[in-house]
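Everyone, study these two lines:
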Amino acid sequence: MSSKLPVLFVTSKLPALAQQRLEALTDVEVRQHTGAHAISRTQLLEAVSVADGLVCILSDKIDTEVIQAAGPQLRVISTVSVGYDHVDVGALSRRGGISLGYTPNVLTDATADTTVLLALMAARRVKQALQTVADGGGGGFSLSTGLGSQFTGKTLGIVGLGRIGCATAARLLPFGITRIVYSGSQPRNDRAQPLNAHYVSFEELLKESDLVCICCPLNERTAGIFNRQAFAAMKSTAILVNTARGAIINQDDLLEALDNGLIAHAALDVTVPEPLPGDHPLVRHPNCTILPHIGSATEETRNAMSNLAIDNALAGIKGQELVAKVDL
């Protein structure tokens, strides 16, 4: 009689190619939530009680309750994301015996592309232009209305010069950016030198930059750093782009800043919550462009992320070293 297969639970349907691979696995018993709506809390708690491995996404809150509900057989949690702020790493470390996998490197290009997309949409006032078309054209071609701005001769500020920050800066340079500044916990000379980027304080970055791109992780140091004080320090013509995590921005303070003209435009791929309600003031604001967290949403990237998450999960279940492991 064959022994019982370990259980791999996946909280969401995967992109087509990765889903095909998942369904073809024979060395684990795959259980999966494939509903149109996110997995419920009750379903998640029940799943971890019997799973040997868990593949989750960033909207799954893996907190103390979930970790305590996990059965003694759970060996790995594998998130299909580069960020893992939705996982209580402290609780995971205290529990012991459970590895945490994530998916770095594979989503750099797609997220940097989206950051540039949002920057261009904000600079060229695309939200207003699309609305003009929807409204019937606004009276035709005009030399004086609907004017945006260019990046020629401007200063780019990168908050967090990691892989995505570097890729974003490299993409924006050909648009005429003449100076790049960056802030973070420490200088990153190895990454800054090829871009001729200069390390400055967060306060100086806000003061000098025409375009500010948030590319840092969400943690205790960065949560809410874009607040009323930060917006007051920025140029009134500045554009703010966020493709990192929504909680890095205090959204009430952002709305106030936009209403009072402290900054020109905010372009967001991430918000709190996700999605924002359709009647939220930021959604309706003419100077705020919001996308539904599509930073890594390409066929290539989402399949690569999902496959790496599967690799991490299978390795953890088998007691092997994870391909991409978070140090707890």
Notes: The chain has a mean pLDDT of 96. The first helix runs from residue 16 to 24. The CA atoms of residues 36 and 139 lie 42 Å apart.
